[in-house]
Amino acid sequence: MAKNKVEHRVIYADTDAGKVVYYANYLKWFESGRRELFRDLRISYLDIEKRNFIVPVVEAHCNYLHPARYDDVIVVETRISEVKEKSVRFEYKITRKNDKKLLAEGYTINVFVDREKMKSVPIPKDIRKNIKTS
Fold it and tell me: Buried-most residue among 4, 56, 107, 128 (CB within 10 A)?
């Protein structure tokens, strides 16, 4: 299935008092990976929202293996590992670019939701087709 890589240089604001990346920023980087993967598939979150859907994270998991630090360039590799009727599972690997060290890995499960009713809905057919044909 679909796969994408995106780079990010760690800025000072990404770090904590210990001068390593604050744990929650890895989840922000997961989101960046999802966004870019959807862009590669010609799926726009703005278009999804115009159709009155949202695609929230309903489950997230991250294993922190090694710290990223200020000025590191990290690579977020994102792939779709499973597509169900209403949800998509994204898997992530975050590595440091210069030494290819695996820093973190995890997944999120995102569900398509009708924004007005706040109920899960089947993934729209055109979006499912873009995901499946990748």
Answer: 4
Q: Report the DSSP pairing between strands 73-83 and 3-9.
A: antiparallel
Helix (H, G, I), strand (E, B) or coil at 118: coil
pLDDT in tens, 73-91: 999 999 999 999 999 999 9
Mean pLDDT of 53-70: 98
Q: Which residues are identified as catalytic? A: 16
User: Which residues, 6 or more positions from 39, have their beta carbon under 8 angstroms from its beta carbon?
Assistant: none
Please state, in angstroms and as integers, the Cα–Cα distance from residue 37 to each residue in 69, 73, 78, 80, following that order: 25, 19, 7, 9
* Rounded Cα distance, 74 and 87, in Å: 27
Round the CA-based radius of gyration of the chain to a whole number and report it. Answer: 16
Structural domains of the chain sorted by starting position, each given as residue range(s) with its CATH number in brackets? 3-132 (3.10.129.10)
Average pLDDT, the chain: 95
72 alpha carbon, distance to own chain's centre: 20
pLDDT of 26? 98
Q: Is residue 134's pLDDT more than 70?
A: no
